[in-house]
Amino acid sequence: MPDKPLKVGLAGLGTVGGALARLMAARRDDFVARTGRSPEIVAFSARSDGDRALPLEGAVFFADPVTMAEKADIDVFVELIGGAEGPAYAAVKAALARGVPVVTANKAMLAAHGLELAEMAERSGVSLAYEAAVGGGVPVIKTLREALAGNRILRVSGILNGTCNYILSRMETERLPFDVCLKEAQRLGYAEADPTFDVGGFDTAHKLSILASLAFGARIDAGAVTVEGIETITLADLAAADDLGFRIKLLGVAARTDHGVEQRVHPTMIAKSSALAQTMGVLNAVTIDGDAVGALTLIGPGAGGAATASAVAADLVDLARGAVAPAFGRPVGALVEAERASLQRHEGGYYVRLSVLDKPGSLAAIARRMADRAISMESIVQKRAGGDDAAYVSVALITHATTETAIREALALTLQDGVVRDKPQLIRIERA
Amino acid sequence: MPDKPLKVGLAGLGTVGGALARLMAARRDDFVARTGRSPEIVAFSARSDGDRALPLEGAVFFADPVTMAEKADIDVFVELIGGAEGPAYAAVKAALARGVPVVTANKAMLAAHGLELAEMAERSGVSLAYEAAVGGGVPVIKTLREALAGNRILRVSGILNGTCNYILSRMETERLPFDVCLKEAQRLGYAEADPTFDVGGFDTAHKLSILASLAFGARIDAGAVTVEGIETITLADLAAADDLGFRIKLLGVAARTDHGVEQRVHPTMIAKSSALAQTMGVLNAVTIDGDAVGALTLIGPGAGGAATASAVAADLVDLARGAVAPAFGRPVGALVEAERASLQRHEGGYYVRLSVLDKPGSLAAIARRMADRAISMESIVQKRAGGDDAAYVSVALITHATTETAIREALALTLQDGVVRDKPQLIRIERA
Fold it and tell me: Touching check for A158 and chain B: CB below 8 Å?
């Protein structure tokens, strides 16, 4: 018997869209075996309808994705345009309003409008699926939403941006400064011409807000994410980390604390022995701590056309099978408003690098300020500054667990004391 | 409105069954939020109905799980009894025959009867779910069946038995021999009184045959798995591996080759830098290579009551949501009969440890036998034997890629030449 087709409308024919079209053609028979339905791209929208050497024969071209979402005879709208607002957002709303399920890779849109879109999908009784939005080919969405559905999730931490991880890995292994590694990443196509969105931590923040919602059954709260980028990381920090048994990674961390839910993105020192620390290059990795499962880690390609298309295809297979799960694991009405834990109350160890006046009493003054706030030190490494001024030495210190407020106050006072110069470098340490 | 219950019949109240009962009670509200259904254990079967301090109030006790499967008013039969045959198998068949979905953690039963049971489930239009059967809390079944459904899977390799990984990890880090570490594992409850099933590789083989079916869309063929255990691994092998940049792990590997599908379980040398090599203790880890996703690695607790119950709970949530996927990813009728690749045609690098007669010409004789079969050597490490006979030295060598036949023949000839004594130790090297 002829299989009922799954009529796909594909919006966006960039790297991922093109890879998806090729994947769907190559894997058609297996898709039919898995789902009983034959996937057909019956409509597409892109900047031009020119020859792309893609298997799109017979598909109707729409210049405007919104028109496609409104008019095309499709069973699912696949949004691979990108951008929080604009045509992607308008087209997804148009599809959901019409009762057409949506598959998207758009983390910026979900971070900004995920709740509204999930509500629309619920009203229409259709899926809003977005495995490709976080972690590329790493199935972290399905894992949180389904595989760990029996757990109370305590914490999610991960390397969610391959660009940053590539740059930090290159800085560490090649001992090249940030600017050089960034240019290299741009040349290789790993970083955009304007890299702020990646290296500033904002892409990671979008993804983290989605994971936090799934993990904690909470309404997405992208505004609650504290964000620091990797631009200030120096070779001196990486060398000090290495001496101390750590690596520096840009982590997104969402955790339940006594004060509410913490969501933070920042360069982090993690023990070299941890799975996250060992994730190098453009890979992504996520560790999820659940009360039943313990710690589960997923590592894989976080970007790239084929890997991301793999995630989109998984959503399409689920859809073709008729599996509809609430977008954020629970219906929007059941999602809680998570209390925001202030970063000032964050508790943990800290790495601090200071440029310290090279005279008797400097270290003692710093130590006193720390002790006044009950901050105890795990180690101190002093090195002559390789810089311009022999009057200062570089001191790296590691604290035992303290609070953000305590360490910030202690450092502010050492600046006032006149024994250090410049803003201290401060990097949070994460148990892993 | 009162939620429609999900009436669960739970067969087996061991570590996992007890953990599941507790998890379901603790996570009831979230389960309802996720699925709209309230999970209730309405019937249970165990060796005795005595006080277990478990939340089973109101549940009907059945001494015989088969009777429970046949008669109880249940929406799902959860089988946590274990064993390939006997009451587990009979009860699961009874449930499926009656159109009651089954959730099981029973890898031995699936390896032996998975196809028959999947066919029964298909005829009844119900689920046969078994996330907990492989990898404990690590969601490798869902990942292969759903998350990577758009991929042609090329290879699955993993640490699937926590007992073996614990023993090998302890041997390596504590430099204690196999027997001592095995006893320790038994004392800690990681190994059974009769450890053969674990340390002989048979448990891993059962799990691997299930993963191979999911990965390659093939009918389960547990008889095709080549199995070698870890009993022969010595501290000398671990030390040699360390010198050469490797660790030794008991891996299950299922791979497409030019000659068919290889399924093999054996101690394996893998580069220390790989995620599998870095998985220590009772953890499990699986790396899946797909044509679109690339390499994806999952690491987490492979056993333990709570972690395994987490996997069972995930299956129950899927079931309560009405998500029915074919047990092995595709309907049984669509599964192919995979051609068995003979281990003799396996291609790869080898580690060989020989006890070599300490006289001029010995190494030359060995090298000649290797060269005759076009085996090229990557490295040779010679050490004086710490043993009983000063006339022999221990030689560890690493070959470049060759075939199983070539290396076996070359070694047999060196034995005939009289330059080595005892059976050589041979460990396959795996790229990771």
Answer: no
- From A7, A107, A207, A249, active-site residue: A207
3-state secondary structure of B40: strand
pLDDT for the residue B386: 54
User: CB B321 to CB A316 under 8 A?
Assistant: no
Q: At which of B133, B157, B191 does a domain end?
A: B133
Q: Which residues of B are catalytic?
A: 207
The answer to the question of residue B334 being in a domain is no
* CA–CA distance, A141 with A326 (Å, rounded to integer): 12
Residues of A in contact with B148 (CB under 8 A): 139, 310, 314
Residue of chain B with shortest Cα separation from A315: B147
How is residue A169 written in tokens? 């890995």
* Residues B218 and B277 reside in one and the same domain: yes
Assess if residue B399 is contained within a domain.
yes
Task: Check whether B193 has a pLDDT greater than 90.
Answer: no
pLDDT for A1? 47
Asked if A304 reaches chain B (Cβ–Cβ under 8 Å), the answer is yes
Same domain, A229 and A147: yes
Least Cα distance to A88 among A65, A107, A60 occurs for A65
- Cβ proximity of A183 and A155 under 8 Å: no
pLDDT band of residue B380 (cuts 50, 70, 90) is confident
Domain boundary among A133, A168, A196: A133
For B307-359, the pLDDT digits (tens) are: 999 999 999 999 999 988 899 999 999 999 999 999 999 999 999 999 999 88
- Confidence category of residue B1, pLDDT binned at 50, 70, 90: very low
Q: Give me A165's structure tokens.
A: 């991880």
Same domain membership, residue B190 and residue B107 = no
Q: Is B331 on the interface with A (CB under 8 A)?
A: yes
| Contact between B294 and A278 using a beta-carbon 8 Å cutoff | no
A401 has a chain B CB within 8 A of its CB? no
A290 and A149 inside one domain? yes
What pTM was estimated for this model as a whole?
Answer: 0.96
Counting the structural domains of chain B, the total is 3
Task: For residue A236, give the CATH number of its domain.
Answer: 3.30.360.10
Do residue B164 and residue B268 come from a single domain? yes
In tens, the pLDDT along B358-376 reads 888 898 999 999 999 999 9
CA B216 to chain A, closest CA, distance in angstroms equals: 11
pLDDT in tens, A295-309: 999 999 998 999 999
CB contact under 8 A, B296 and A19: no
Is the same domain home to A73 and A180? no
Bridge-partner residues for B294, per DSSP? B290
Residue A51 lies in a domain: yes
Tell me which residue range forms the domain holding A424. 345-430
A286 and A217 co-located in one domain: yes
Please tell me whether residues B127 and B157 are part of one structural domain.
Answer: no
Specify burial of residue A40 (Cβ count, 10 A radius: 0-12, 13-18, 19+).
middle
Please list, in sequence order, all residues whose beta carbon lies within 8 angstroms of the beta carbon of residue A207, skipping any fewer than 6 positions away: A107, A111, A133, A134, A135, A160, A161, A252
Q: How far is A355 from chain B (nearest CA, A)?
A: 35
